[in-house]
Amino acid sequence: MRTHMMRRFHVSAFFLLAATLVALGTNKGFTQSVSTADLLERSRPRLEAIYERGEMRAKPFRAEWLLDSSGYLVRELDEETGKAIRVVYDAASGKQRIADGNEQVGVSNHLLSPDGTKRLQKDGRSWNVLDLQSGEKRKLTAESMQPDVSYQDISWSPDGQRVLFVESDSSEVRLRNVLVPDDPSYPSVQQNQFARVGTKIPKLRVGVVDVIGDDAGSITWLAIEFPEDGGYLGEVSWPENSAEVLVERLSRFRDKREVLLAKVGGPVFPIFEETNEAWAVGSHGINSGIQWLDGGKRFLFLSEKDGWRQAFTITGDGKMIQLLTPGEYDIIDRAAPGDVVDEANGWYYFYASPENGTQRYLHRVPLDGSGTLERITPGDQPGWHEYQFSPDRKWAFHTYSTLNTPPVVDLVTIPEHRSIRTLEENSELRARADEVIARPAEFIQLQITKDVTVDASMIKPRDFDETKRYPVFVYVYGEPYLQTVLDRWGAAQVDFHRTIADLGYIVVSIDNRGTPSPKGAAWRRSIFGSLGPLSTEEQAAAIQELARTRSYVDLSRVGIWGWSGGGSNTLNALFRKPDVYQLGIAVVPKPQPHLYNAWFQEIYMRTPEVNADGYARSAPLGFADGLKGKLLIVTGSGETNTHIQIIEGLVDRLIELGKPFDYMVYPNRDHGLREGKGTEVHVRMLITRYLLENLPPGPMPTSSSPQ
Predict the structure, then answer these.
(1) With b meaning 16 or more CB within 10 Å and e meaning fewer, what string describes 458-471?
(2) Where do the Peptidase S9 prolyl oligopeptidase catalytic domain residues begin and end (predicted)?
């Protein structure tokens, strides 16, 4: 209890200090009587609470639905013994009992054979079949002599006589030398595979191995081929029979997607194909995957071929395709890790938000293609929703949150959405949120051209005074992998940003075109060919519009920061728009995109061989001479993806140009900069210190004339 009270005291003391400092603001920002060092030390407890003790993280609710949907199984601690126990709750009544071990859960173990007598086991780089009755083990796949060959996507055939798998051969993927932090004076060298833009990627092939019978152990390789430059695989699965395999083949640039049906030991038949001059499947892979219907007669899939992410069904022979979700709106995602279909009653469930791209709600449409969109999530719960469905689709664990309110988990009926009972209130987190969130984050829209309006979020200081002007600190990502403007608890480093706001800054985040907002395929693909130029223009235009429409924005004090792709956009902003931004903090950026990984970068920019101009226009390295403001670059020497050499080229260029900048390398840390005690707090303290020292916090009068 004393520890809990002390934590609350530290947080409250920090808020009191921040409020006092804001109140003492002058036309030079914060009063000079409080030093940066003092501000940092006062903010440390709050950052430690966030990153070391996880006090702003929601408590998850974890349960498994029983196969018959009558209840769910939860792992709990026995109040008397303190030991872990498994408890079964009845869905309708809430009555509980200790699990007897005979319960069948709705999520099947894909390594267990359909009849439950055998289990697949990984053994080094090979796989075994374990007979659960006799204990006998048999090799399923021989261990490759090549250490770079692995087997993945293992699955049993419906009749349990065959096993499907994908072989990945990375032997031609080039190796990077990386220092191993063992002996400080004589470090070892480790070689890691890294498929850089334009280089060799893993070779893939699909195999079927017989498990029983005279041919046990023999492998049949399906006639699925790739061109010389390679490609990728999406869905690889059995289409509800044991004689055929469905394979989703993606081109190397992901601009072509094919759904193929391969006879085991026989020919391959195309079912569906789509191409897009940009990409058919992006880096999130949301469009990829299928769901079989009608006992294998047709399947459901997602596509943006008509301009929106929509659901379609197509017959197994590929001759009849039907649109299920007509209308100008996007499916944000499937309603679970896989598609949620209620075949018994004829419904398909998914997430969408036709009116607000920052939120997410459960919807459904009829499977017969009549196209009537029905929202299941109640209209009085604006924000972000997640569902975990029971096998019969009549119940769901429902998680609801907003950017300003912690998650609540309840059990609901489907489709009525009647709440049966609360499963997790997160009451302690709600109490902390009441202390921390002095001013709720706001969602706004900024019209930057006649045809383009962007979503933005804004967090104001605790003692905000709209008659004064405040510095703006922009958090940017701006690339196709994710949005930052989401009405969801914990989104986009919001806890850190609230800490920054209470120091006397307005913290803003903006989703430019090219981010994966549910605003249509044209919005998302607008950045194709060159990541950087469009996001830089629209981020800067949005800041200008924010200042034009809100007198409390101080354009003489604008900073920007971001992580990964956001780090790249920070560099582009600072180099290309030096009169807009006075400060930038780029964490693990990629200033030389041609040195980045092939899997991500080639989707959106192809290779320099076919798109030299796009790479030149994208690379922050080529615009480094535009730097005027303060710049901090942060990375880890143990980076395995945005590896340090990508950044060191920019460091050398800035040195060559004689540009002053700051550079922090965290030893042996990877992309998330989490390894090592205290690292996460140290990174945020570094960002906070650099901001305080170079972009004065606090309010100034709206007029520059003396008062």
Answers:
(1) bbbbbbbeeebbbb
(2) 500-694
Summarize the confidence of residues 693-701 as an average pLDDT: 93
> How far apart, in whole angstroms, are the C-alpha atoms of residue 28 and residue 31?
8
CB–CB of 502/461 below 8 Å? yes
- Reduced to 3 states (helix: H, G, I; strand: E, B; else coil), residue 296 is helix
H-state helical runs in 437-511: 494-501
How many CB atoms neighbour CB 171 within 10 A?
13
| pLDDT range class, residue 145, cuts 50, 70, 90 | low
Q: What is the pLDDT of residues 361-391, one digit of tens each?
A: 999 999 999 989 999 999 999 999 999 999 9
Q: Where are the domains of the chain?
A: 115-168+203-280, 440-701
Q: How many CB atoms are located within 10 Å of the residue 655 CB?
A: 11
Instruction: Please write down the HEC assignment for all residues of 338-357.
Output: CCEEECCCCEEEEEECCCCC
- Residue 533 identity (one-letter amino acid): P
The dihedrals phi and psi of 706, each to the nearest 5 degrees, come to: -60, 145
Q: What is the mean pLDDT of residues 455-478?
A: 97
Tokens of 330: 């996007």
Pair of tokens at residue 239: 């289409």
Beta strands in 283-440 (DSSP E): 290-293, 298-303, 310-315, 321-323, 331-334, 340-342, 347-352, 361-366, 374-375, 384-389, 395-401, 408-413, 419-424
- Looking at the domain covering 440-701, what would its CATH class be? alpha beta
Query: Tell me, what's the pLDDT at 602?
Result: 98
Token couple for 66: 């029983």
Task: Decide if 448 contacts 538 (C-beta within 8 A).
Answer: yes
Please give the average per-residue pLDDT across 431-447, as a whole number.
96
* Residue for token pair 């200790």: 98
Alpha carbons 528 and 617: distance in angstroms, whole number? 12
pLDDT value at residue 706: 38
Give the span between the Cα atoms of 683 and 663, in whole angstroms.
12
Interval 351-370 mean pLDDT: 97
Token couple for 497: 């940003």
Distances (CA, A) of 212 to 161, 195, 216, 266, 562: 6, 38, 5, 20, 54
Classify residue 697 by its DSSP letter: -
| pLDDT band, very low/low/confident/very high, at 17 (cuts 50, 70, 90) | very low
Global pTM reads 0.93
Fold of the 115-168+203-280 domain: Neuraminidase (2.120.10)
Distance of CA 107 to the CA centre of its chain: 23
Contact 42, 17 (CB under 8 A): yes
Q: Distance (Å, rounded) from C-alpha 385 to C-alpha 48?
A: 29
CA-based nearest residue to 644, from 652, 688, 599, 685: 652
Same fold, 115-168+203-280 and 440-701: no
Q: Is 478 helix (H, G, I), strand (E, B) or coil?
A: coil
